[in-house]
Amino acid sequence: MTPVTPQPPALSAPPAPPPDERVGSARLLDRLVVRPEIGALLGAVLVFAFFSVVTERFLSTGGVATWLDDASTLGIMAVAVALLMIGGEFDLSAGVMTASTALVTAVLATRLGWNVWLALLVSLVFALAVGALNGWLVMRTGLPSFIVTLGTFLALQGLNLGVTRLVTGTVQVSGMRSTDGYPSAGFLFASTFTVGGTAFYVSILWWVVATALAAVVLLRTRFGNWIFAVGGSAQSSRAVGVPVVRTKVLLFMTTAGAAWLVGSINILRFTSVQANQGIGLEFQFIIAAVIGGCLLTGGFGSAVGAAIGALIFGMARQGIVYANWNSDWFQLFLGVMLLAAVLVNNALRRRAERVRR
């Protein structure tokens, strides 16, 4: 009879350690930190909460309609400027371009009797041509876009004043309401829709559409990858086959196209335009983009963040009015927000770089 060798008892696997809740929290924090717009979102929440407590009118339906409208046209431009800044460039002619396109539309429609839609088309072609020229000059000459677009800013400002005085004898063009095609064009660009018995301007919808479109292009398309690449390093991008010149020219054209949209909204809503409109707005566009997470060095930023930056502008500007404060305080607010945004954005970028490693 064969002896049976006793077998050692089977060793059971050690129990798995319980999950560390800190790991999950850290991963969530890391995912939030790499989003450029997180700082702007926190700032918007604070501004909203502050003015909601300071003044009751801020949260009324009419108050919401007012500060959303204030932010809408600024937001359209801030989103386009954000794309350009992510691509590593600036456009100081963006503000005066809103007036230039409105003047082209108004002069053609009121002085030459053109249909408003045809005048809008010509002003769009004009805007895109100026944007393409800006981009081509920057890439062809190698000059900083700050210098090139500053020259464009001065040229457009002089053109606006000179042509307007030559055509009308004043610095204003008016009379859009009686032009052919105004009712349909006005409905698309300057009408209102009612929510809760309060009228909201359609420019708010244009702002939402522009933000959504820019976010999709930036995060879901090859062109969006090109924007981040050329903003991070144009030479490295060129080495891996990214069309740097085409990308930057298209970004300048995008900024000019957004200026045309804002100019069209303004001329059709107010039915008149001053030749000196838009001067100084380019800095507000850049500030809104920086508050929204864009770096001045390029390669980092968010279209949604720029829209939130514009929202902060609108809430603060109207909140100060509702609180019956002197409007001069708004300039202090801008300065503080700009400095805070630059510091926060730099800290977030460094944290994001560590996370991605």
SSE arrangement, N to C:
HHHHHHEHEEHHHHEHHH
Given helix and strand content, the structural type is mainly alpha
Total of helices: 14
Average pLDDT works out at 88
Proportion of beta-strand residues? under 5%
Radius of gyration: 26 Å
Please tally the β strands and state the result: 4
Describe the structure in your own words.
This protein is mostly helical. 71% of the residues lie in helices and 4% in strands. It contains 14 helices and four strands. The strands form two sheets. Strands 1-4 form a two-stranded antiparallel ribbon. A two-stranded antiparallel ribbon has the order 2-3. A hairpin with a 2-residue loop joins strand 2 (192-195) and strand 3. The longest helix has 28 residues, at 329-356. It is globular, with a radius of gyration of 26 Å. The protein starts with 20 loop residues before the first helix and ends with a helix.
Walk me through the topology.
Elements: H1 21-33, H2 38-54, H3 61-86, H4 94-111, H5 116-141, H6 145-168, E1 172-174, H7 182-190, E2 192-195, E3 198-201, H8 203-220, H9 222-232, H10 234-239, H11 244-270, E4 272-274, H12 281-291, H13 303-322, H14 329-356
Antiparallel strand pairs: 1-4, 2-3
Helix pairs in contact: 2-13, 3-8, 3-9, 3-11, 3-12, 3-13, 4-5, 4-6, 4-11, 5-6, 5-11, 7-11, 8-9, 9-11, 12-13, 12-14, 13-14
